[in-house]
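2024-03-11 09:14:02 INFO receiving multi-entity request
2024-03-11 09:14:02 INFO entity count = two
2024-03-11 09:14:03 INFO echoing inputs for audit
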Amino acid sequence: MKPSESVYQHELEIQRRAEVICQNPPEQFEELLKEYLGLTQHYTKLLKNTIKLTSVGDGAQRKLVRARNDLLKAKRRLEDASFTDALTGVRNRRFLLDFIDNEVKSVLNNDSELGDHNLLFLMIDIDHFKQVNDTYGHPVGDTVLVQFSNLVSAACRKSDTLVRWGGEEFLVVCRDSDQAYPAKLAERLRSQVEQNEFDIGEGRVLKCSCSIGFAGFPFYPPFPGYFGWSQIIDMADQALYIAKKSGRNAWVGVQPGKQVHHGATPPTDYHLKRLYGDKWVQFQTSLGDDARLVF
Amino acid sequence: MQSLSLARSVDTPEVAFDPESGNFRLEGESYPENALDFYGSVFECLNQYIERTQGPIEAHFKLSYFNSSSSKCLLDIFDIFEAYSSVGGKVAVHWHYQKDDEDIKESGEDFADDLSLEFQLIPFD
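2024-03-11 09:21:47 INFO inference complete, emitting structure
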């Protein structure tokens, strides 16, 4: 007997008794009527109990479902918090590590004839931020970081993801951007930051500038797996530091150079100065001319 | 007659019955794999009590979760109480529920429905 059946032992006994009565019904009508009334009473009680138990069972299920939903909500909130930078509210590095592999896969799996499937990595750093912290203190530095991230976020497309990469360095990841978008976005960010007056309280404002480096994935479309996403981020970071060395308040984008079209296999080394020297990369910059870049 | 005392486990509630005072208490969560195995001794103890004495029963239920088989066993406990009450025994049932636990409150109301017993729903914080 199943455990759930055993709690109905008494009811099962009555049912067996009913079967016996049906097989050998008493001949006297009065006796038959008495058995009939007795069984009807049992049936009525069983029906009432069934209705009660169904209602109680529904309540228990509702309680469990609600508890499960509360847990799921809490889990989502925790996940969201673990992927969010506590100060600025933008995504953190852990979020990037979690979502980037799928993004890269979807870029590599997509048929390029259907449109531009790519990822753009744009690295932004606030110029002379250490001085802001040293002069005004960390609370003011934090205020600037929050306003800066809000400004960058507003300047990006909704589909772009802003990540606080660490300190005053931010990374924008853009899906499927057209060729003109990286330079347009970089210039929009550079000029908006330059023009912005950061409100640091007590009626004071601060002017800031930023430097930007960017590179796209896949870097060499004929060799889509050639540089991995982390190497592309590193390239964007190197480009950012070239922008810094070249005077700051500037952006530098890395693109495949002329050498790619000559059929040779690109080098595995992704040091920008060497790649540039061998014409594996070329630069696009707000400074107008490659010659103004300082490595 | 001996008193009954079953300690709480992961899937069974704490159950206590004191035949001296007629105080019955069932508290915790109830979802044993075999409900009859657990509640069998409870039925036995209560049946013995109502056969041997005419004392009152004051029952306290303080459950936060119970499965369907346990619900059936609770119905059977109320049956015993009702049978005792129908022959003149004095029975008072107190159904305790956490203030914001509407489901446990409603299940108490379900059990109380059509039951000819003194049945009180008591919220606690």
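2024-03-11 09:21:48 INFO post-check: The beta strands of chain A are 91-92, 119-126, 161-166, 169-175, 197-199, 205-207, 210-217, 251-256, 281-285.
2024-03-11 09:21:48 INFO post-check: Residues 91-292 of chain A form a domain with the Alpha-Beta Plaits fold (CATH 3.30.70.270).
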